[in-house]
Amino acid sequence: MSYEGSFRVWRGDDDAGGLVDYQVEVNDGEVVLDVIHRLQATQAPDLAVRWNCKAGKCGSCSAEVNGRPRLLCMTRMSTFSPDEVVTVTPLRTFPVLRDLVTDVSFNYEKAREIPAFEPPKGVAPGDYRMAQVDVGRSQEFRKCIECFLCQDVCHVIRDHEQNKPAFAGPRFFIRIAELDMHPLDTREGRAEAAQDEHGLGLCNITKCCTEVCPEGIKITDNGIIPMKERVVDRKYDPLVWLGSKIFRRQT
Amino acid sequence: MTSTVPASGVAAPGRARIGQGTLRSDRWWLQPLLVFLGLTAFVVYGLVRTASQSYYFVPAYQYLSPFASPCVSASCVPGSSHLGVWFGTFPPMIPLAIVTLPLLLGFRLSCYYYRKAYYRSFWLSPPACAVPEPRAGYTGETRFPLIVQNVHRYFFSFALLISALNTYDAVKAFQSPSGFGFGLGNVIMVVNVALLWGYTLGCHSCRHITAGRINHFSRHPVRYWLWQRVSWLSARHMQFAWITLGTLVLTDAYIALVSAGVIDDLRFVG
Predict the structure, then answer these.
(1) Chain B interface includes A86 (CB < 8 A)
(2) Which of B16, B205, B212 sits opposite A17 (nearest CB)?
(3) Residues β-bridged to residue B73
(4) How far apart are CA A229 and CA B231, in angstroms?
């Protein structure tokens, strides 16, 4: 089945812009990115859109469809009725460059602030040995494709530009969790740094990051909340602190 | 329902200029509204019932409402003080379970699920995903009073004890005037207690305590086994949170109706 779909696509740059109406052909089995490409090919050759794999694995085509952060290549047109107007805008948490393309360099700056994996001294790459059961939790976070939809939807920075310097965001909280839970990582103080330097305390666990994750990573339950509990261990729980001093408990 | 663009946020310089705060066209307001109504209804019911100091005990079958357990005041009706009488007569409006109710309230208030629920539905922070919140300032859980949420694990410890007390109440209620017996009230109390355990043990702090804090599950197989069980419950924490609100009300309401003589307990034995 084919039909003429109604679309509103945001066109503009950081100076000005607005929603522009288009009528575009939609065919069975297509996703929103297919329609955007047809729009480029037939009516708006200068429409800027970032994309790459068309398979939900590169994280490039992040945008907002009807106000919800989505991957354009993973949003099926069959989820909309033929008479529904589909609105496509760029991510609204980051500065826009042009049309549907935003500047996500905020995320790369935050990534650089997190110290890398530190293996035990004397253990060279290739000699790492660990039980699968120990590394399973960290591996969930390795599924992240860095589409930054979780960063886009997080109200801590989406609604409060002023928090950006102090807040790393959910993508980087699971990066910290991945390292802090890693059985071979030896760096001390990751949990304290999550709270003091990366703004974990700003998160109020409203779970929007988990809702939008296209990889289905349980960002809040498996990453952020466990890290908040580890922060409590090291900063707010006097009994755990005392126990660690008396019994020299290790993890 | 529409929303306005706040002073900063999605209207901040450099971001795409879109006049509306959200372009969501679905009924995003429905869930926070339902949560608001549900939690408000429970709080109102709980306040009315605990302040009434009445119809919380059925002497013939030893049914004691969880809203009045433990009943440790001289105001308690004879037979309802399972743990003895610790205090004198309470003035009107003071809950008879004053020892436990603040701890249970603290447990639920600092619960990771309820935090999400009331931050969204009461504080609109945010009301729904990709819908702007109404306030320009935001400090999250970094300052007093919300930094106190970090004591959740202590409330969890108290909640464990209170779940044990509720279990004791449920077991003690297998009675009739002639000895052992049980009726529909027992079924309701046992189901309530089982679900309360499901909610309590699914707590994220419990998950952390069992094995979440360690990095080498392979060195702690028993703790890892426990962690897997707790993780199953924890993934359903929201469902347990809501179901137990319902079963608490059901248990209390049933006992109140039997105690007031409005209905007779449906007895299976005794």
Answers:
(1) no
(2) B16
(3) B87
(4) 15
pLDDT tens for each residue of A102-158:
999 999 999 999 999 999 999 999 999 999 999 999 999 999 999 999 999 999 999
Nearest CA in chain B to A180: B215
Name the residue ranges covered by the structural domains of chain B. 25-269
Q: What residues 49-108 of chain B have any CB closer than 8 A to a CB of chain A? A: none
Predicted local confidence at residue B1, as pLDDT: 40
β-partners of residue A7 are: A22, A86
Predicted local distance difference test score (pLDDT) of residue A243 = 82
Q: Does B32 contact A at CB distance below 8 Å? A: no
Mutate to test the interface with A, among B23, B206, B228 (most CBs of A within 10 A): B23
The answer on pLDDT for B3 being more than 90 is: no
Closest CA–CA distance from residue A183 to any residue of chain B (Å): 5
| Cβ separation A211–B141 shorter than 8 A | no
Three state DSSP letters for B65-99: CHHHCCCCECCCCCCCCCCCCCECCCCCCCCCCCC
With contact defined as beta carbons under 8 Å apart, do B261 and B179 qualify? no
Contact criterion met (CB < 8 Å) for A16 and B8: no
B14 and chain A in contact, CB less than 8 A:
yes
Q: Which domains does chain A have, with CATH numbers?
A: 2-102 (3.10.20.30), 105-247 (1.10.1060.10)
Contacts of B224 (CB under 8 A, 6+ apart): A133, B211, B217, B218
Average pLDDT score over chain B? 95
Rounded to the nearest 10°, the torsion over CA B92, B96, B101, B103 is 110
Shortest Cα–Cα distance, B113 to chain A (Å): 8
B133 interface with A at CB cutoff 8 Å: yes
Can you tell me the ipTM of this complex? 0.93
All residues at 6 or more sequence positions from A103 whose CB lies less than 8 Å from its CB, including other chains: A94, A95, A96, A97
pLDDT at A51 over 60: yes
d(CA B132, CA B101): 35
